[in-house]
Amino acid sequence: MSASVPIATMERWARKCLKIAKNCGVVEPLPCEGCGARDVFAHQLDLNRPLIVKWLCARCEPCPRGATVDIAMLAPAGAGAR
Ligand SMILES: [Zn+2]
């Protein structure tokens, strides 16, 4: 379906979807699934389903180079990102 879309584009799209969902209150960050830490990253398991995420902290993160989103970046406007 998305075979012709570069992975980087898919990742950007997936992150944007997650950010919007977070801002709308559709997705709420949960404590780390591994240890319960509150400092979590969203791991998008499937870029075609950007809202299906696993919340893990940096220590429990199984694959550091996976599609992750810092929740700071998901904060509503005014967070001062960038
Ligand atoms: Zn953890």
Give me some keywords for this one.
82 residues, three-stranded antiparallel β-sheet, 3 strands, 16% strand, binds zinc ion
Could you describe the 3D structure shown?
The longest helix has 17 residues, at 7-23. The chain starts with 6 loop residues before the first helix and ends in an 8-residue tail after the last helix. The chain is globular, with a radius of gyration of 13 Å. β1 and β2 (53-57) form a beta hairpin. It is of the alpha+beta class. The protein has two helices and three strands. 26% of the residues lie in helices and 16% in strands. The chain has helices spanning 7-23, 71-74, and strands spanning 40-44, 53-57, 68-70. The structure holds zinc ion. Zinc ion is lined by residues 32, 34-35, 37, 56-57, 59-60.
